[in-house]
Structures are given as C-alpha cells and as structure tokens.
Amino acid sequence: MSDEVTIEIDGRPLKARKGQMLIEVADAHGIRIPRFCYHPKLSVAANCRMCLVEVEKAPKALPACATPVADGMKVYTRSPKALAAQKATMEFLLINHPLDCPICDQGGECELQDLALGYGRDVSRFAERKRVVADPDLGPLVATDMTRCIHCTRCVRFGEEIAGVKELGAVGRGEHMRITTYVPHPLRSELSGNVIDLCPVGALTSKPFRFRARPWELIQHEGVAPHDAVGSNIHIHTLRGRVMRVVPHDNEEVNETWLSDRDRFSYEGLYGPDRLERPLLREGGVLQEADWELALERAAARLREVVAAHGPDAVGVLVSPSATVEELYLAQKLARGLGSGNVDHRLRQGDFGADPAMGRAPGLGMRIPELERVDAALLVGSDIRMDQPLLGLRLRKAGMRGAEIAVLNPVDYEFYFPVAHRLITDPPGMVRALAAIAADLVRHSDIAVPPAVAGLVEGARVEEAHAAVAHTLRRAGRGLVVLGAQAHASPWFGALRLLAGYVAAASGAALAELPFGANAAGAWLAGAVPHRGPGGAPAQPAGLDARAMLERPRRAYVLLGVEPERDAWNPAAAARALGEAELVIQIAPWLSEAGRRWAHVALPAAAFAETSGTFVNADGRWQSFEGAARPPGEARPAWKILRVLGTLLDLEGFGYEDPDEIRREVRAAVEAAPDPAGTVAAVALPETAASLWRVGDVPIYAVDPLVRRSRPLQETPLAVEAALRVAPATAARLGLAAGARVRVRQDGTQAELEVVLDRRVAEGCALVHAGVPGSEGLGPAVGPLEIVAG
Amino acid sequence: MSAARDAGAGRVVLDEKVRAEIDDWVRRYPPERRRSAVLAALRIVQHHNGGYLTVPLMDAVAEYLDLEPISVYEVATFYSMLETRPVGRHHISVCTNVSCMLRGGEEILAHLERRLGIKAGESTPDGRYYLKREEECLAACCGAPAMQIDHVYYENLTPEKVDEILDRLERDDG
Fold it and tell me: Which of A174, A176, A182 lies at the smallest CB-CB distance from B70?
C-alpha cells in the first residue's frame, strides 16, 4: 500500500506522506501559513490557533499544525474563511499583548510583530485593561518580560523534549496562566539560550544583549563556534566592528537549529579587561608596550639565541586545540623550521602511549546525525552532555528511542537519557573495567587481538556487569564506543585508547574520540603533534608531547592561545617550567596574571570572530570562516603574526598571501599522506595504589580562555570553583567533614579546598575540577592526591 | 494531621500511610504510566496536610512519581480543587459564567464578599471560609445562579438564601 497521498493546497496539487501535518506539507512547498506555537523540532501543541486554514467539507477552520493530510483533501490558506479565522486569532492574541515594541528587544525580528502587520487591525477594539505578569529571574542568560508572553509553550516543550530538563512550565490556568519556574531559580540547562530563539515574541530575550543594539543595525556574518568538536554553525552579529551577539545558523548536518549556551554567550569574554591591545616586551623585568616591529624582531632574535646556545630541542611550542588549522600549521612549521619537534596541542592529555596507533585525526567515527540512530553506546570517561552539548543532545535522541547506553566514568554524571549500565570507578579501575569488557569480547570474537591489548586483558576479572556491557555492544546493529575528555586526561589514556579500539573493533562498533577543543582534528591534520607532521606523515624530527615539554622544562616556549595555569594537565609543572624559562613568547588575545609573570614577549592576537580560518569538526568537516569583527587596538590575526615571525627567522615557505593558501597546503598534505596508524607494543599500566585519586574534569565554562572570560556564563550555576568533592563513604573513611577546609598536596604543591559531599563521585576519588579558580596550583588533573591536614 | 516528615535541607519524605494511599492509585495505571497518579497523589497529600500543598510536598510527590517538580506545580496550580497556600476550612465557589451572570451571579459574589469582609481569592481571618476566585462554570446552568460550598450545590440563589445557608453552616459548626 502506498504511503503517499495527494492533496491540494490553494489549488496546487501536492504529494504528501501519510500522517504528515498540513503545515509540514505547506512549508515543504513554500506555502506560508502563519504560526506561533508550531515548531518543526517540537511536538504539536496547537494552542495558538494562528495556523487555522479552511479545509473543504470541514465545518470550521482547522489548525494546519494538527491536521493530518488525507487523500484528496482540499485546503485553502488564504480564502476569506481562513483569513477571517487567522485575523480573529490575531485580535485575541493582541488583547493582552503590550504595545511596547519600541522598547522591546525583539522588535524588528518578532514573529508577532511581523504577523500583526499582515493580520492585525489598525486600531484595537479592546478598551479594557490588559493583564500584567511579574517577571521571574531566570539567571544571567535569559531576560524575561512575561507580560509579552502569548503562551505558545515552545520554551516549555523545548525543555521537556529537547534539552531533557524541564525547568519552565505553564503555571495557573486561563488568564492567570504564566510561564515560570514557579520556585525561583536560574536556568540550569546547558542549552537554555535556545528558548530565546524559540520565543516568537519578546518574552524571553538575551540578557547580555539586552538594549545593546537593534536587529536592523547589525551586520550578520557566518561563523563557526569555537569551543567543542561539533563546530556549530553560527551567525555573528556585529555593530561598528564589535561582536554584539551570536545566534545559531541552521545546519541539519551539524547543529540542527540549536546552539549550546557556551557557543552562544562566550563572545561576552572577548572584550575582557586583560585583552592585549599592543605588543609587550619585558625590559628590565617589567613588561612594557612596544611597537610590532620591535616586538617581532626581539622575539625572533631571542628565539635564535636560545637555539644557538642550547640547540633546537630547547624550544617548546604549545598550541591551543581551538586554534585554526592555518595557525596550527604555521606553528608546527615554525617549530620544525627551527629544528625542534616539540609541538603539541594536547595540553590536557595525561598519557601519549597510544600515539603511534592513533588514526589520522580524532573524530566521531560516524556522521553527526548518525549518532541519533545508534542502538548501543559505551561512554568511557565522558560527560558528553557538558563536554560536547550538541553531541549529547543527539545521543539523547538515540537513548530516548531505546538505545542502550553504558557509562564507565569516575563520576556518576547526570545524563538526560536512560543509562543501561553504570560502571563508576576510580581511574585505575576504569582501565581494569575496560580491560574486563575487552576480555569478555576476546571470547566471542574472531578479530585478532593486538599484542598490546593481549597484555592488557590478560588476567582481567570479568564480572557480570562487564559481560553485560560487552553483550550490549555485540548485539547492537549500530554500536559506538566514546572516549571522552576524562579518558584523555587519564594517566593511562594509552591503555584506554587501545582497549577502546579493540572493544569497538571486536563488537563491530564505531570508535569516537572526543578530546578537548574545537579543532583537535584540525590540529592532528595540520601536524600539531610531536610525532606526526601535516597529513599524518612521520614527523622530522619527532619531539616531546605537551606533558613532557612541561615536565622536562625547555629553555624557550612559544604559547599560542593557551593559558597553561588553567589549560595544562599539570599546572604545577607548567608553572615551574614557564617560570624558569629564558624565553616565553605568548601569542594570544589576552594576557592572564600568570602570563604576565611568565611572558617575555606578548603578541596581541585576534580572537574568535576576529580572524579567518578553518576548523575541522568531529565529523571531519572542514569549515572555513572569515573574520567578522575588528580586533581591538593593534591585535593581529595569529596566522599573520606567525607568518612574519617565520620570515624574520629566515625560515622557508612563510610567504603566504592569504589563509586559503595555507589551507590548500594542509589539504594537499592530507591527501598525499597514507593512513598513518601503526601499532604499539605495550602501554603504561596503573601500578601505583593511592588512598585518594584526584579526578579533575574541566567544567563546561572553564574549557578555554574565551569562555572563562564570559561573565554571564561565569555567573550561571554551571560555573563552579574547585572544591574537594567526595562521596560520603570516602569522607567518612578519611575523617573529612562537609564544609571543612582542608589542605591537599599533589606533585609538591598544595592548595586549600572546601570539602563537599557529592554522591556522584566514585569511592576513593576526589573530584577537584581542573581549569577553575582554586586548582591552578595543583598537579595532574588525574593522579594521586594527599590530604595534608584537616 | 501530617503528610510527610522533615528530611532536612527543605526536603520532606511522604509518610508511610500517604505513600500507601498513593500506591493504591499507582496500581490502577500501567507501570510505565506511574505519573498518571499525580492528581490523586496531590489530592491525598493535600487532604493529610490540612487542605493545601507546599513546595516541599509537591517536590516529594514529584520524586515519588518520577516527575519533574515543575510538572507537579503545573498540575497543582491548574486545578482549582488543589490549593498551594493555606486557605479557609469551607471552600465557597460562586459561578459567574454566562448563565449565572445573567441571573445575578455577580451580585451573589458581591454579597458574599461584603458579608465575609474578603475579596474573591481570599480566606477569612478566622480560617472559617475561603472564597474561591473565578470558579466557573459549575455546570448548574438550569439552577442559576449557583454556588458550591464544600462540594455541595446550592441553586437559584438570592442574597437572602445565601445568608440562610451561611447562618446554618455557622450554627452547625458551633
């Protein structure tokens, strides 16, 4: 039986799928029906009645959003009957809507304003009093003017259906109905800003953008979000060269129509007080402003001196995983041009033992939309919801459809999909658990077990829970193993990576590697890793990884867009290395307090939205963008700074005219090089026992210098400071009382932290966040932690 | 009378007997539709809490039925038989919808407001009466104007009849 029906809208015969709603069919064919509550990504509410249309043989106009098509149906969207219904609806909607468009932020981009122009009367017939609604405070991101609300409930449905956290609700009834949290609290969702876009009126607007500009004054630029591996497509809105706001740009293949709050509000950090506007040079121990020419010449000369005196291996180049492909390529070219192989972007990674076995670039192992259709997934060291919000959202769709999702984490993170298997254990326990899952698969699979994996699974104790996870993955038609940020921070990442690779292969699942940053894949492809050059070709010479560069101090460092006191796996080691270095060249948009102590030369770089470049996302998608805003002061795009530095150092091949040339060169290298994945003989295994393990995940708004400077994000409940978060049982064993301040020691440094009881944390672990105030002085993000005194 | 005991930090735990009553309703729905018992649960909790609900009690119901707290607030504020603040003992609902309005419902309401010294939506200071706001339609159009006191219908009202009814109620109350 055919699934297809033929209907007629406004005299046009159209094919439609059975069960489709009229409005979907009309939208697909460009027939515009007015609407407020209908949204293609949300369930049908049919409560605004704006989409009423005339349907032949129906006695009254019907809502197009809730009327399924039927064969032979004849629909009129502009007939006198339809228009009368639409106009009557509009009149009722406007009864209680204030006429404050001139002071409303939605003015100029308001669905109600636009439709009122077409369907509203010139003069209102309503002479009675309008209702007034008190505004709930929803926190630093979403401003409320609830008197303007028309009760479409898009925001309520978004929370319930998409974000997975229902925070807003429709409280009360009839004229007393209002949208609120009821119990006052700031929104806690990592996706809350989307209600701003969904709100068809000015009831929910952007709080940071409030009264900053009118929509028609803004210039719209295409962009790519700079914080996670999704590479969400965005529109950057500027006014007189400054970024005023960021909104999503629809792309079904990437971010659909959504944007995480991190990507939406991080621009607020652009113009922070420590923005570098002029080059700085350290003269007589003091940083002083200098002109570009002098600063660049001095940087080149001093780099040359260090190389001449100590050899090129004395230079280390640390680059941000959110730098552009072009910047990363030039940075590695500079390092290798000087003869140093020490270049790396993996500042938060704890172990590099699996490096030779790594593929060309980390990624999802599938297309982003395919994530919605997996049947089973195993998350290893991943809080996917906070680390990669929109990938979490896709995985939630799979979970809600019935996919069995297992987690192997040191913290029982809160997910908004059902979790089928929960393995919560300390960092060495994670390796053992994954080895046990692998060991179970060895029994059921014909795939050859690589020697290094064989060593890891030998003697593994397979418990029922491990076998259950293995069974789930094996049975799934479309399985997925995810190595998240917490796995990368493990001091035994090599073991986790090899085991995960085997588990995926033996169960027929895809392997997703989701490290930190917006452009980790681009960094690998550009050659910003010590063992591989552009495209993945073997590096000449090979050098030290990020951790080794800081633990075995270099004489000179070039830092591109990183703040090691927050961004390094081991901030204590970073502070020692950078504090004692002869030369630290910082190329960055901002200079932190620590950077001010270390830097000998600070070169002001253009930030997000101010430079052109390319990010490669988890999908392997190369997304290029142009600069949208003017860098403040004398700041310049980092690729230009590196180009001049390379030229001043007399290095070859730095004569680029524009970033396209650089990108083409990387592309060619990627196409020329064969798949570089090799094998590893053996990797490091957890051997030490510790009475307490530090687990240092990086909270969602602490991942990079830009987001850390966004004041609105830092004021949300998701921005947290470092504390000693332990399970009640661990606290009891160690004699720690909630609320007490204790001194902890790690890697020779100490910090004072407040004890917080947190049931999510695995027994024997302390969750001490990395990248946040309070933990800058500590050592490895994941490693043994000692309590000095209570 | 209590529905729950304090669990610290603004949380309460529903009493055993309250949970048992709720369970009786939960059993009437399929297991994955546990949340369908929310209306009955709120009515039971309100009954054991002196006629009104509090945020901690609604949160406890949410937790017990695996609902988001806001979903429980939505239900509790939607239905006029559920109260979210302390109210008087006797609930008076006067209909002011079309049929009753045409037959003098608004005068009945005004008379009650005068006699009790409160506005619709308020309770008398002695805690005896609660005059509900906008209670319409009572589905008693053929006996308009009508009101309901504690679920008992009174129809074809006049101000005098209202006085008689209240006098009698006060006598019976003692």
Answer: A182
Q: Is there a contact between B77 and A183 if contact means CB atoms under 8 Å apart? A: no
Nearest CA in chain B to A177: B78
B134 touches chain A (CB under 8 A): yes
pLDDT at A459: 87
Read off the amino acid at residue A611: T
Given a contact cutoff of 8 angstroms between Cβ atoms, the answer to whether A632 and A271 are in contact is: yes
pLDDT value, residue A140? 98
- B70 and A173 within 8 Å at the Cβ level: the answer is no
Q: CA of A164: which chain B residue's CA is closest?
A: B68
Q: ipTM, 2 decimals?
A: 0.90
Give chain A positions within 8 Å (CB) of B74: 169-171
Question: Which residues of chain A are under the pLDDT cut of 50?
Answer: none
CA nearest neighbour of A154 among A245, A40, A230: A40
pLDDT at A637: 97
Confidence of residue B1 (pLDDT cuts 50, 70, 90): low
CA–CA distances in Å: residue A103 to residues A6, A114, A135, A355? 47, 16, 16, 57
Exposed/middle/buried for A222, CB within 10 Å: 0-12, 13-18, 19+? middle
Q: Please, which residues have CB within 8 angstroms of residue A279's CB and are 6 or more apart in sequence?
A: A289, A290, A291, A292, A294, A295, A296, A601, A602, A603, A604, A634
Nearest to B70 among A169, A172, A173 (CB): A169
Q: What's the pLDDT tens digit per position in A7-27?
A: 999 999 999 999 999 999 999
pTM of the complete model: 0.94
Q: Would you tell me how many other CB atoms lie within 10 Å of the CB of residue A626?
A: 13
pLDDT given for residue A686 in this prediction: 83
Q: Does residue A179 contact residue A168 with C-beta atoms inside 8 Å?
A: yes
Give the chain A residue nearest B59 (alpha carbons): A183
How far is Cα A412 from Cα A283, in angstroms, rounded to an integer?
50
C-alpha distances out from residue B140 to A441, B30, B130, B148, B155, Å: 70, 35, 21, 10, 8
Judged by a CB distance cut-off of 8 A, whether residue A174 touches chain B is yes
Residues of B in contact with A160 (CB under 8 A): 68
Q: Which H/E stretch holds residue A219?
A: strand A219-224
Alpha-carbon torsion, ordered A629, A634, A637, A639, to 10 deg: 170
DSSP B127: S
How much is the pLDDT for A450?
Answer: 93
Q: State which residue of chain B sits closest to A173, comparing Cα positions.
A: B78
